[in-house]
Design brief:
The chain is built from 7 helices and 14 strands. By secondary structure, it is of the alpha+beta class. It folds into 2 domains: 111 residues, Transcription Regulator spoIIAA (2-Layer Sandwich); 100 residues, Pdz3 Domain (Roll), CATH 2.30.42.
Amino acid sequence: MNEAGFETTRQACIRHPNINVVLMRLSAAFVLVALVMCSAPRPFLSALAKPATLSSLVSTTTRAGRLAVFDDAWSTINERYYDRAFHGLDWDAQRVAFRKLAAEAESGHELYAALRRMVGALNDPHTRVFSPEEKFDWWHPRFVSIGLAVKGIDGLATVVKVEPASAPARAGIRPGDVIDSVDDQPTESVVKQRLTSATATAAEKTRAFATIFEGPAGTSMELGWKDKHGQERHARFERYWQQRELGLSIDRHGGYVVIEAMRKRWLRWLRSFLMRE
């Protein structure tokens, strides 16, 4: 969702003499933690997660409610996660570090931001946390966006995608531009605030860059950026809900196929394509 985004798939690469096929496949072998909470029924958990244990209604407007949501999320992963070594991460230490942040969160958004940071430290794209507003649907993911996406390239928040006809597109932001500031804060500082430690992994840094625009839908943010000519520009953009359908795209010039989620007809097409080659 940051997408930002919104990464809920695992990449694999199939080598072929004439084509590099990047398969973004969904895996049922990993836990997906889908937490749906905030003055609403307890979190919805995927089929691999544990049964409901909270009361039917928990409000995240209270400290007790926020801690109940946090503890349920941490415990679910602690009990059900496929890798008992947690990829080398001290999962108990994660609870100590982030439980206080969850308790002191001033909104549901801050609570879920803390949960995402905690879960993100696992560096596992299959284990994610979703707020109730996201109403996650595998085939039609919904997420808050301002109309563009960035990646950390050489330590800079570099624009890699701009939605057509979006406010950033109308403001002149283009792929390759560099985001210098977010709400008058240097982008570097914003990224550091999202890292769980000074020794963050590459995956954690990637997510930190991807979530610099994170915030509730309907709110706005001031961006400062430099275009390819080095000209500094500023504009304010509103966050909004965006929904898209996962699909299959072909880059005939670059020589690869991107499959964002597996469907039988796509697999049949891929097989026949490779057989022809």
